[in-house]
Amino acid sequence: MDLTEIKPLVDHKNYHIETEEIMCQGHLACPGCGAAIAMRHALKVFGRRTIMTIPACCWAVIDGPFPYSAVGIPLLHVAFETAPISASGIRAGLDAQGIEDVNVVAWAGDGGTFDIGFGALSAAAERNEDIIYVCYDNEAYMNTGIQRSSATPWGAWTTTTPTNYPKAEPKKDIIAIMAAHRIPYAATATIAYPEDMKRKFEKARDAEGMRFIHIFSPCPPGHKSMESNSIKISRLAVKSRTFPLYEVENGETYRLNIDPEPVPVERYLELQGRFRHLDEDARRQIQENVDKEWERLMKRIKDSER
């Protein structure tokens, strides 16, 4: 990582990742899976005093077949739409027993977060349930055959938005939606900036109420990318401003965490076959869309500073 190109809010010289490995070897993730890397970092922060719910998603497979499990902590596999309400029930049960030192984490993909589980997620946020919700976003239903979700970006290929009819709608702004619930903490993160992701996991762990972390998670099969490029793609998502790294507290205070020297969106697109069908006009439109969303985010940040 070229740290000279970003403006960090952490001390990289003193940054370290905890050495204890909670996630086990032998998981079933594809090579280069961003969701597997994110889980490894998350468990190092949340620790063994953690209970997790995972709905139908890639991680329901990655964890391994019963009776094996790769996460190394108590884990409950639940229905597609029920990760947040199952986590809420676990939290209520722990509270009833006076057990306060256990983190309860719902870990779900974009399909179970943006779409199928959105109603339950919104309800949990409205009630300000004392849980941590982590969405690893690979921008499609990858586990069931690479179908489009509302997290799929405009113009992208999926098996249900083929090259002749690519995704025609913009990606849902899930952080803005969660911020509108005025939950204590919401943030974006990527595996390319582990120090930023670690700090946000720590902040979520130490807070109370509903906490939401949105992780951009490259998927080599679904994105038609090289396994060795997952970190590079994650970094370019940030540097091209396609996936900004920021956090929102109490739905009001927006804070940009990394402000990179911008690079053209084309550098991000060219590493992924799911965008290969796009002509020059479409790529120009994506750049314009990214610029517009960045300006909108900057306005939110400035407004929150007043």
Name a few traits of the molecule.
8-stranded mixed sheet, 13% strand, 8 strands, 11 helices, 306 residues, globular, Rossmann fold, disordered N terminus, alpha/beta
Mind explaining what this structure looks like?
- By secondary structure, the protein is an alpha/beta fold.
- The protein has helices at 34-46, 58-62, 83-96, 110-115, 118-126, 174-180, 194-206, 220-223, 230-239, 265-269, 280-304; strands spanning 50-54, 75-77, 103-109, 132-137, 185-190, 211-216, 246-249, 253-256.
- Strands 2-1-3-4-6-5-7-8 form an 8-stranded mixed beta sheet, with helices on both faces.
- α1 (34-46) crosses α7.
- The protein starts with 33 loop residues before the first helix and ends with a helix.
- The relative contact order is 0.13.
- The model is unreliable at 1-10 (pLDDT under 50).
Count of discrete alpha- or pi-helical segments spanning 4 or more residues? 11
Number of E strands: 8
Low-confidence stretches: 1-10
- Biggest sheet: strands side by side, in what order? 2-1-3-4-6-5-7-8
Beta-strand content: 5-15%
Q: And the CATH topology?
A: Rossmann fold
Provide the CATH architecture: 3-Layer(aba) Sandwich
The H-and-E topology, N to C, reads as HEHEHEHHEHEHEHHEEHH
